[in-house]
Specification:
It holds the Pfam family Aminotran_3. Keywords: Aminotransferase, Pyridoxal phosphate, Transferase. This protein is α/β, with parallel strands linked by helices. The protein has a seven-stranded mixed beta sheet with strand order 4-10-9-8-7-5-6, sandwiched between helices. A hairpin with a 4-residue loop joins strand 2 and strand 3. Helix 2 runs antiparallel to helix 8, helix 3 packs parallel to helix 8 and helix 9 packs parallel to helix 11. The protein has eleven helices and 14 strands. The chain folds into two domains: about 240 residues, Aspartate Aminotransferase, domain 2 (3-Layer(aba) Sandwich), CATH 3.40.640; about 60 residues, Aspartate Aminotransferase, domain 1 (Alpha-Beta Complex). Bound molecules: pyridoxal-5'-phosphate.
């Protein structure tokens, strides 16, 4: 049977990973400045992660959500401790799209309203509700276009108030730093105003931290820098270091009703074991601090490269903006220098999303290769 051919593939077959490197079948190593799209948080094949999953699968790999699974509560408690956010409840699922889909559903259940506001260049996933609030017509089928949604310009608080005033908005969903869109981040004032207006008009605020969460920006959640408290926070990518897991943090004042949400695989024993190992390592190895410190180093290094016009993002969620399209540069870095990087909707922007365990020496190697590639 052929595979349903929807991905543009690089001609590389990784068979093994270790920390910030992946290896192909000839044992060539590739420096992973892309983290498998911001997924690898504590490094490929981290021993705590491997042992956590291996020990758990020897005991019990899965049972349905109809039984007690203390690992879910352990994960929720650890998440509260490491992230520093209090007074939320955790619902576990399997991916970023599912996390946002559930967040939107909770907002609609809670408010009894059905319209959602989103922003230009947003990416929230590919399931029906969230693809309808993703700013890319190419990934929406006719079937997805029946949701009541309104797209607004990022940072347009006046338009936001006009829409909220209409009284039918269940939620405002946003990425604090837009990932796929190209690393745009608004000023704190905008996030604060959005939170204030949502509250005033009875809409819930959903922070999509699927990509920016889990320490990637140097804070556990990117919104924490802006002094707001979202009603719902969606999480996924870095949460399982590659093991599929997602979740929604739901304000404690939103009451759970039996059957309101549900999933077969979400919060299974293996996913929880992976998630607990990730949080342990982020905490013990001070990976948030590492992300913060390295960003200063990256900015200083980038300042020495005249072709880089702008450094966007924060921590280890970085966009290097050039004044030319970077598709060729990315290929050169991959095939000549064995370095994985990412792209975005902004064709001039090279996206850097490495494992949070990355060190200065790896960035030095990266910038050395980049300078040669730019010649
Ligand atoms: C901000 C954001 N939200 C949601 C998603 C969707 O996550 P998933 O691919 O796990 O469904 C992504 C994926 O890139 C993302 O970057």
């Amino acid at each position: 049977m052929e595979l349903f051919d929807v991905y543009l593939l690089y001609d590389i077959t990784p068979v093994k990973g270790k920390d910030v490197y992946i290896f192909d079948k000839e044992d060539n190593n590739y420096l992973d400045m892309y983290g498998g799209h911001a997924v690898i948080s504590i490094g490929h094949s981290h021993p705590a992660y491997v042992n956590g999953i291996a020990n758990q699968v020897k005991k019990l790999g899965f049972y349905s959500n109809s039984i007690k699974n203390p690992l879910q509560k352990e994960l929720a408690d650890k998440l509260e401790e490491v992230s520093g956010v209090k007074d939320y409840q955790l619902f576990l699922c399997n991916s970023g799209a599912e996390a946002n889909e559930n967040a939107l559903k909770v907002a609609s259940f809670q408010t009894g309203k059905d319209r959602v506001i989103y922003f230009e260049k947003a990416f929230h996933g590919r399931t029906s509700g969230v693809v309808a609030v993703t700013d890319n017509k190419k990934v929406q089928a006719a079937y997805n276009q029946h949701h009541k949604t309104t797209k607004l310009a990022f940072e347009d608080s006046r338009a936001l108030e006009e829409e909220l005033k209409k009284g039918d908005v269940a939620a405002v969903i946003f990425e604090v730093i837009q990932g796929v869109g190209g690393l745009d981040e608004a000023a704190s004032e905008f996030y604060k105003k959005t939170a204030e207006l949502s509250k005033k008009y009875g809409a819930l605020l959903i922070a999509d931290e699927v990509q920016s969460g889990y320490g990637r920006t140097g804070d556990f959640f990117a919104f924490q820098k802006h002094g707001i408290r979202p009603d719902l926070i969606s999480i996924a990518k870095g949460m399982g270091n590659g093991f599929p897991i997602g979740g929604v943090l739901i304000d404690k004042n939103i009451e759970a009703k039996p059957g309101m949400l549900g999933t077969t695989f979400g919060g299974n024993h293996l996913a929880c074991a992976a998630g607990i190992a990730v949080l342990d390592v982020i905490q013990k190895k001070n990976l948030m601090q590492n992300a913060k410190e390295l960003f200063d180093f990256v900015k200083a290094e980038a300042a020495n490269i005249p072709e880089i016009k702008n450094v966007k993002g924060r921590g280890l969620m970085i966009g290097l903006e050039f004044d030319f399209e970077i598709a060729g540069l990315r290929k050169e870095l991959l095939y000549k220098h064995q370095i994985f990087t990412g792209a975005s909707a902004n064709k001039n922007l090279l996206r850097i999303l490495p494992p949070l365990t990355i060190q200065k020496q790896h960035f030095k190697a990266y910038f050395k290769a980049l300078k040669i590639a730019l010649k």
